[in-house]
Amino acid sequence: MKIKFICLNLWLGGKLFEPILEFIRKENPDILAVQEAYDAKGENLEERFRSVDVIKENCGFEYQFFSATCDAVLPEGKIPAGNAIFSRLPIVKTDTIFYHSSFKEVDSYEAPGGDYSQTPRNVQHAVIKADDTELNIFNTQGVWGKDSEDNEDRLKMSRAIVGAVKDKPNAILCGDFNVFPNTETIRNIEKHMKNLFKDELKTTFNVKQKPNPIFANFVVDMLFASNDLKVVDHYALNVDVSDHLPLVGVFEV
Predict the structure, then answer these.
(1) Global pTM?
(2) Is 28:242 a contact under the CB 8 Å cutoff?
């Protein structure tokens, strides 16, 4: 059985929401893991603030798991923000591990140039049943900073993630890690999992939406797999659906 998996930072719930929906429907992944998802309720709010429900309802996913990191305080109200996993296969178990602060309100969540270094962060874990195999899916958005190098908060993040994924069979870990690949933070994870795009990508940002030349050489989004999981294919897609690029992995279980 082949499993198509996509990782994508939605960009503040989905600033390019209609292209996101079209992209997901076209690519038709079995499992989709996203960061910067919003889970507000209320039909009067625009779709991006309700991205968890709208993606599930419009893209054919039967199962979803949302892990809020904070309440984003916005003019539209307090909007739960965090990470989400969508699946066409049954999600049979879930848990969430906070590794940087704990759930709280975050003012000016969408402020350009804001300091998000104290924004709470978590890694979510979903066990997904694929025939007779249980997949361990981990999804995170890493500690933000004004650079993408190691610091104590990011090293703590990597230790928490390693503690969650270590020795888990059939595991996939993905996310916007907010840190460069050639750091101790990421090397800690690579001791336990395969980094599918290691040394392959020049950037994981959509330079159409990030015109500052610095982003043309930034890799912060990554996809890992446990050593026992067979990787059939992996590729990044240069599509204009977010300020980040989607990462795709195809696995055989």
Answers:
(1) 0.98
(2) no
